Amino acid sequence: MPGIVFAKTKDKLDNSVKSLVMNFLEKLQEDDTAPGLHIERLKNVADARVRTGRVNDMWRAVLFRLETGTTPTYVYYGTWSHDKAIDIASRSTLQMNPVFGIPEIIEKTKPEPQPTGEQPAAPAVEVPVEQEPSTPAPISTPAWVNGLVEHGYSLEFLVDSAGLDPQIAGKALEANTAPAFHKVTDKAPDWQGLLILDLSSGKSLEESKEDLGLVDQRETPEDPKTGTSEDEKIIAGFDKEAAKLQFAFIGDAPEALREVIEGGSADAWRTFLHPEQRRYADGSWNGPFRLTGGAGTGKTVVILHRAKTLAQRDPSARIVLTTFTRTLAASLSQSLLKLDSDLILAKNAGERGIYTSGIDALVLQVFNAATPAERKEALKEVLGDAHASVTLRPSGDTQKAWKEALENAVHGLDLELANPTFLDQEYVSVVLSNSITTRDAYVKVARVGRGTALTRPKRLGVWKIIEAYRQAQRVDENISFPELAAVAARVLKQRGVNGAPPLADHILIDEAQDLHAAHWLFLRELASPGKDDLFIAEDSHQRIYGQKVPLSRYGIAIVGRSRRLSLNYRTTAQNLAYAVRLLKGADIEDLEGESQGSKGYHSARSGPNPAEAGTKSLADELDEVEKHVRQWQAQEVPGNMIGIIARTKYQLQKLQTGLAERKVEVRDVDYPGDGSAPLYMTMHRAKGMEFFKVILFGVNEATVPLSLTTHGLAESERKDGLLRERSLLYVAATRARDELVVSWSGTPSELLPTANAKASES
Ligand SMILES: Nc1ncnc2c1ncn2[C@@H]1O[C@H](COP(=O)(O)OP(=O)(O)OP(=O)(O)O)[C@@H](O)[C@H]1O
């Protein structure tokens, strides 16, 4: 039976062609001599191993045949229309890279035809076909600079030291626009494309080699296991980290074949991990590990693969996969099954398999499963006096309780401290996280990580309000989710003291930047400290709830076990540059308090520049939205791949009504119907999602930032609140894969790059 190695598809195929390709490859796997396949050699080819195969009358597959023992191995390169396939086959070579020993397929371009009797034509310069800007006033973007040229790379260096194909390196150096540059990296063998992107974004060759797992062959003695013939060396080379970016061995199972073909590039994440992603998915560490990276760098993809690796490594393992909300958790469950439908998804925490849950739902499950005695004891330890009742109602809305407490307590504080936002943060970060139940303990406690300093009289005032709050909650038999997390943590801790085993062996946490202190208390108790206990994926730039939490205070020491992803798989370079400009000037710290810049954060894809649609009135803005939606619908973009995102629900109501008047159907993301209509949602709800096309609607001065969230706060909390608003805009802008439109009516938000540019001009 011939072996098949599948090369990641770069050209999109229609579904009808995909199923033909699958039939073809299935037959090839069974018997490559079957007459219907027409596996044929061609004349005048660059590589004698190249073959074409008949997919149907119109379509041909391009393959390379490697001789390995008794049965051959075919490397499937792709399927194209007849003439194109013959052309590609005649120009393509499967070879070992001379520097790094990675198998690669290089398509040599034909020399330009020279006009006879005239001077040789100047080398062709790619003229990018920029898409028409969708608005009359395109956004001003900084001029594009070729990063390779900027960092002084020469053709000689790129070829001799970085192992790039000379033609590819030359074209990359010549590119004078982002689309032309990305066209080169897109066509190149995957590892070469990524190496070019790394170098152009400022990474050194050594750093990039390490990330991509590239080892200079010229410096290493040959491995005797790799065999002697060129074909055997190529087969062995497919196992190298960088080769796995583009090539996958297809086992005997037809499902594996179906998955890679049907998924196409949208599902490439299931098979073709970046070597760094693979390392973090498969690695093992003696304690908590943290993976950071900007939006779209594939953190969730790593978490999903890691869950699978851990489950396969030990089928009896109890793995908890958690994230900030139930909706995100549900989407993780779906993705897990897409990754591997054989994975065992546990129904409850503590059971064998992977248990996926929103963090608060998980907390609630532990609390509900606790005995009345366990609850009573934990409530007393965390909240002081035992609650009258151990059957409490979890309540998400603490604002009302704080307002009541403020009315009832005689505290003598001014409004900067006597407001629900400050008090809630103080309560969770200082009081709950330190299990403070008395005034004396609160007066003495170190308020690590809190911005606003409190004198003793102020602390006494705050404590009075906290007492009133606890009293009101007790009377109403309410308990907040942070309280619940602290109580559940206590239950688990006590069980541990009594010798009970923890509920999980491994915990994987996505969107960790938004978890609060009591969540971390809880997660620390959920698994025993030790090997591969916690895997934390976070992006501090996307912190839109809560505050940064110093993890080491909760027994989660990640020193030396923290890595960062920098290649953005989701967003085009143009959208990414825009989103990063939204963060300009923001001092963002990670969970360990280290400053998080966006240096080296780069994208592998190119597309149109984001468009800003500033309008005079809401009616004009709605007209703009209508225009874009209709344009995209005419291009047959699926409705549920168009996202319209606004800061508030009120804005969404206006949007929905305004578009209904214009006979444009849009749907709430939570009620998507059959998926044919564009979806609208708030910026908070957009977290973790992605769309081909995104409109950020109503990014007006009055709404973004939402003054409600920062009004009346002390300077430190106000800065924090403003940072969250900025992050929210960044989260929303990074949901777009291909096209981003930012609209407003009246004065634009001060957080937009346009507004910043105008302000600095004047
Ligand atoms: N190795 C890969 N190959 C192809 N696509 C990938 C790969 N890794 C990630 N992607 C794609 O990139 C997009 C972003 O990935 P993912 O959601 O994991 O990023 P993230 O870092 O968790 O993003 P965010 O922080 O914005 O939620 C997804 O569409 C995903 O399928």
What does this protein structure show overall?
There is one protein chain. Helix content is 39%, strand content 16%. The strands form six sheets. The chain has a six-stranded parallel beta sheet with strand order 10-9-13-14-8-15, sandwiched between helices. Strands 18-23-22-19-21-20 form a six-stranded parallel beta sheet, covered by helices on one side. Helix 6 packs antiparallel against helix 7, helix 16 packs across helix 17 and helix 16 packs across helix 19. The protein starts with a strand and ends with a helix. The structure holds adenosine-5'-triphosphate. Adenosine-5'-triphosphate binds next to helix 12 and strand 16.
* Ligand types: adenosine-5'-triphosphate
Backbone CA Rg: 29 Å
Count of alpha/pi helices: 26
**How much of the residues is beta strand, in percent?**
15-25%
CATH class (first level) name of the largest domain: Alpha Beta
Give me the secondary-structure category: alpha/beta
CATH superfamily of the largest domain: P-loop containing nucleotide triphosphate hydrolases
Number of domains: 5
Biggest sheet strand order reads 10-9-13-14-8-15
CATH architecture of the largest domain: 3-Layer(aba) Sandwich
Mean pLDDT across the residues is: 87
